[in-house]
Design goal:
Elements lengths: L2 H57 L6 H18 L16 H4 L1 H24 L2 H22 L4
Helix pairs in contact: 1-2, 1-5, 2-4, 4-5
The structure holds heme C.
C-alpha cells in the first residue's frame, strides 16, 4: 500500500530530471550547431578571399595556366555553393552577420547567387580556355564582396 505513492513520487522526479537533462542537451546541441555553421561559413569566406589574388594573377599572364585557374575556381565555387545555405535564421549571434540578412534578404540572396554564378562562368571559361569569359566571371565575383559587406556584415 505504501509503496505506490513512493513509486509515483519517484517516477515524477525521474521524469523531471529526465526533462532537465533533455532540455539542457538540446539547448547545448543548438548552440553547438550554430557555432559550427558560423565557423564553417567563415572558413568558406576565407577560402574565397585567399583564392582571389592567385585567380587574378593567373589571368594576368600571357600564357594562362588553365589547370591552376580551374583548381582555384573549383574550390571557390564549392565554397560559394556552401555559402548559399550557410545563413540559417538565428545564426547571427557571435558572428559578423547582420540581422538585415534575414529582415531584408532579397539583395543578400541576389549578391550570393551573383557570386556563385561568377565562379560557374569561370569554370566554364576554364573548360573552353576562354580568357574573356574568365575575366568577366572574376569581375562579377569581385563586384559582390563590398556591396554585400557594406550592408550585411558588421564592422566588428
Ligand atoms: C551575399 C553577401 C556576401 C558576399 C557576396 C561576400 N561576403 Fe564576405 N561576408 C559576408 C558576411 C555576412 C560575413 C560575416 C560572416 C560571419 O561572421 O559569420 C562575411 C565575412 C567575410 C570574411 C571574414 C571571414 C571571417 O573569418 O570572419 C571574409 C574574408 C570575406 N567575407 C571575404 C569576402 C570576399 C573576398 C568576397 C567576394 C569575393 C565576399 N566576402 C563576398 C557576406 C558576403
Amino acid at each position: 500500500m505504501s509503496a505506490q505513492p513512493t513509486t509515483k513520487r519517484l517516477s515524477t522526479r525521474i521524469k523531471m530530471v529526465f526533462a532537465m537533462v533533455l532540455g539542457s542537451v538540446s539547448v547545448a546541441a543548438i548552440a553547438n550547431s550554430a557555432t559550427q555553421v558560423i565557423e564553417a561559413r567563415q572558413q568558406n569566406f576565407e577560402t574565397i578571399e585567399q583564392n582571389m589574388k592567385p585567380l587574378n594573377s593567373t589571368l594576368n599572364t600571357d600564357l594562362i595556366d588553365w589547370s591552376q585557374f580551374s583548381a582555384l575556381a573549383i574550390t571557390s565555387h564549392q565554397a560559394a555553393i556552401e555559402l548559399q545555405s550557410a545563413f540559417p535564421k538565428g545564426s547571427d549571434a557571435g558572428s559578423r552577420a547582420k540581422s538585415s540578412i534575414w529582415s531584408k534578404p532579397a539583395k543578400f540572396n541576389t549578391l550570393m547567387s551573383q557570386m556563385e554564378q561568377g565562379y560557374a562562368d569561370m569554370l566554364e571559361a576554364a573548360e573552353r580556355q576562354d580568357m574573356a569569359l574568365a575575366k568577366r566571371g572574376l569581375k562579377q565575383v569581385s563586384g559582390t564582396c563590398k556591396g554585400c559587406h557594406r550592408q550585411y556584415r558588421s564592422v566588428w
